[in-house]
Design brief:
The chain is of the alpha+beta class and 233 residues long. It contains 9 helices and 9 strands. A 7-stranded mixed sheet has the order 2-1-9-3-6-7-8, sandwiched between helices. It has a two-stranded antiparallel sheet with strand order 4-5. InterPro entries: Papain-like_cys_pep_sf. It comes from Nitrosospira briensis. This is Peptidase_C39 like family protein.
Length: 233
């Protein structure tokens, strides 16, 4: 899949850099600095959530679907037919005051109001392959600690520290799949190499462990024109 990822400018801008990659794939030309400037940031950490990236895409005329595995935010029973997820999020917000959950809830309420779609389905090779086969790159919020097998990070400068450190989150784009080798092509804005192939099981595990940093999701962004073409096919 023809995606090109720029290096992220600093430690906290992997999210908007990946969003820039997706926009470029769909032919939207925009400076990375502009996307970074308007991306909602989390207090203290300076990072962001995938849902804030999805809201930016929706405001710019794209469609967005989030496949979530974050049980800190969503109860699985909310995805049954007839359940008003926005209402359940508002009720939960009144009872759980943890700051990151509050920020995530605000983002998801806006996401739903803007027309975003939420899905709860098994995270599998078949799901990844199916999305990529349709020409849909996948922006994912995952655990970089697990993906890289790196030391956990400590302090405001994210210093590697295997004892005092805590797990770190990250954003990458999944852009290809090799069924025979069971690997996926990862477009990664961090580090010296912006593209590499890696075992799909490692990536799926990293996605699920993204729950530690309040992500654990797949974000699929596509143009409304593409959606209309698929509906007519």
């Amino acid at each position: 899949m023809p995606v090109k990822t720029l290096p992220q400018p600093d430690e906290t801008t992997c999210g908007p850099t990946c969003l820039h990659t997706i926009y470029s794939y769909w032919g939207k030309t925009e400076r990375l600095e502009s996307i970074i400037a308007r991306t909602r940031k989390l207090e203290n950490s300076g990072g962001t959530f995938a849902v804030f990236l999805a809201c930016d895409a929706l405001r710019n005329g794209f469609q967005a679907t989030i496949y979530t595995y974050n049980l800190n935010v969503f109860d699985p029973t909310w995805f049954a037919a007839g359940v008003d997820i926005a209402d359940r999020l508002r009720q939960q917000r009144e009872l759980k005051r943890e700051l990151r959950l509050q920020h995530a809830t605000d983002g998801y309420l806006e996401f739903l109001r803007l027309g975003g779609q939420l899905r709860l389905t098994d995270l599998s090779q078949a799901l990844i392959h199916g999305l990529l086969r349709r020409g849909l790159p996948i922006l994912t919020g995952l655990s970089s600690t697990f993906l890289y097998r790196a030391a956990r990070e400590y302090g405001p400068d994210d210093i590697p520290d295997d004892v005092r450190g805590i797990p770190a989150g990250h954003f990458v784009v999944i852009a290809g799949y090799n069924r025979e080798k069971r690997t996926v092509l990862v477009a990664d804005p961090y580090g010296p190499y912006q593209e590499y192939w890696i075992n799909i099981d490692r990536v799926l595990g990293a996605v699920l462990l993204g729950i530690v940093t309040h992500d654990a999701n797949l974000l699929v962004i596509h143009s409304r024109l593409r959606a209309n073409e698929q509906a007519e096919a």
